[in-house]
Every structure is written in C-alpha cells, then in structure tokens.
Design a protein that fits this description.
Helices cover 29% and strands 24% of the residues. With 229 residues, the chain is α+β, with helices and mostly antiparallel strands. Strands 1, 2, 3, 4, 5, 6 and 7 form a 7-stranded mixed β-sheet that branches. Helix 1 runs antiparallel to helix 2, helix 2 (60-73) packs antiparallel against helix 3 and helix 3 runs antiparallel to helix 4.
C-alpha cells in the first residue's frame, strides 16, 4: 500500500522586472510567448483540512464546491491518491446537497444538484476512486458506514454511506474484486477500499432517503497505517 499522507506544496513564480534608459537606435523586441501555468500534483495540507472539516460539519454546499475546485488543481493522481479521494468526496457531498434540498422542498435547487451529480458521474466512469477509511466487519447485520461482505458473493464488498446521524443514505457502494477478498487479514480493522467506477444508479423516489448506488470494479483494499490517520 502506498500510504495516503498529507504534505504542503509551495509553488513560487519569480518574474524579473527590468528598466532601461531611452535607446538611440530602434530595437526589435520579441513578442512574449504564452506561458502555461503548471498543473499542481498535490493539494496542500491546509487546503485538505478545510475540505475535511466541511465534510465533517456536513456543510454539503461548501464541501462540493471545495472538492470541485480541488479537482481542477490536480489532473494526474499522486501517491497519496488525492484525486481518487476527491472524486468520492465530490459525489458524496453532492448527494448531501440533494438530500438537504429534497427535505426542505427546494425543488429548483434539488434539480440543479441532480444535474451536477449526473454530469460528474458521467466524467468519472472508468476513473479510480478511494473511499474514506472504514472498519471491515465480518458480520454487519444492519450497521451503517462499515465495510461489509456481500451475501452470496465472496468477490465483493459493500458500504452503506450515510450522514452522521444515519438518517439519510448518500450512497450504496459496491466494490467488485477479481479474486476472493475476505480474509482474517482485514477483519475488524480500519481499511481503505477503492476501485474503478463502473456505473451509477440514481434513486427515482426521494420519499425514500437515499441518492445513488455506485458500482466499482477492479477493487482493491489496504489497511490504514498509523501515519494515514
């Protein structure tokens, strides 16, 4: 496992400014060439903390906005898998917006959030995701926000991802693996779960408080190291 830990990147751009006396003879000055702004490879520790604080406080509008902005900053993932994590955070926050607007009967805002979610999912199909670390249980029964076995399928795991109170379901997450995954190595331990997004299904009846199903393939799982917390 490549540890997902946080560092701070500082990018500095120095532009020299020169002044000259009036010249006696004309000089041909080359036209300035456009400079492409380099794309960052990491989100800073301070920025990441702002996003996680917004998620923990369930400020879904701010969380979705921040995740969207951060997604524009990094186009190629780094060893901390920040891009893969941001994809999940973005969809999760958008689901929170939909649930909030639906509960408040704000139809216009809810429809706009659904449109944003649909567009985001369309861009993320086939992309890698990393889900937040959760504890893997052998026997989940009806618990929420744990990694659980899928009944009758020893090559899949599932998560029911809800709000903090457990009253609204943002996403049913299903991760498929190419080989059998359950083993004593992961039981009862906090674990990262991820895979490539295969498809998404949306709830058509918001009288039932859930938003989407996310189905992942080519799944992977790894234990959370102390440095990852």
């Amino acid at each position: 496992m490549k540890k997902i830990i946080l560092f701070t990147i500082l990018l500095c751009l120095f532009v020299p400014v020169c002044f000259a006396q009036k010249r006696r003879t004309p000089v041909n000055i080359a036209k300035p060439q456009p400079v492409q702004t380099p794309i960052g490879r990491e989100i800073s520790d301070a920025e990441w903390k702002i996003l996680t604080a917004a998620l923990q406080s369930e400020n879904w509008e701010n969380s979705a906005l921040l995740a969207s902005q951060y997604l524009q900053k990094i186009k190629i993932d780094n060893e901390k898998k920040q891009l893969a994590q941001l994809r999940y955070f973005y969809l999760y926050a958008l689901a929170g917006k939909i649930l909030t607007f639906s509960s408040a009967k704000k139809t216009i805002e809810e429809n706009a959030a659904w449109k944003e979610l649909d567009e985001a999912v369309g861009k993320f199909i086939g992309k890698e995701f990393v889900l937040p670390p959760r504890r893997l249980l052998n026997d989940c029964k009806e618990v929420l926000n744990y990694i659980c076995a899928v009944k009758g399928n020893d090559r899949a795991l599932r998560v029911t991802a809800t709000n903090r109170a457990g009253t609204a379901i943002h996403s049913f997450d299903y991760v498929g693996f190419e080989e059998k995954i359950l083993s004593g190595e992961f039981d009862e331990r906090e674990t990262f779960l991820g895979g490539k997004l295969k498809k998404a299904e949306f709830n058509q009846d918001m009288s039932k408080p859930w938003v989407m199903r996310l189905i992942f393939e080519k799944g992977f799982v790894s234990l959370v190291a102390k440095n990852d917390k």
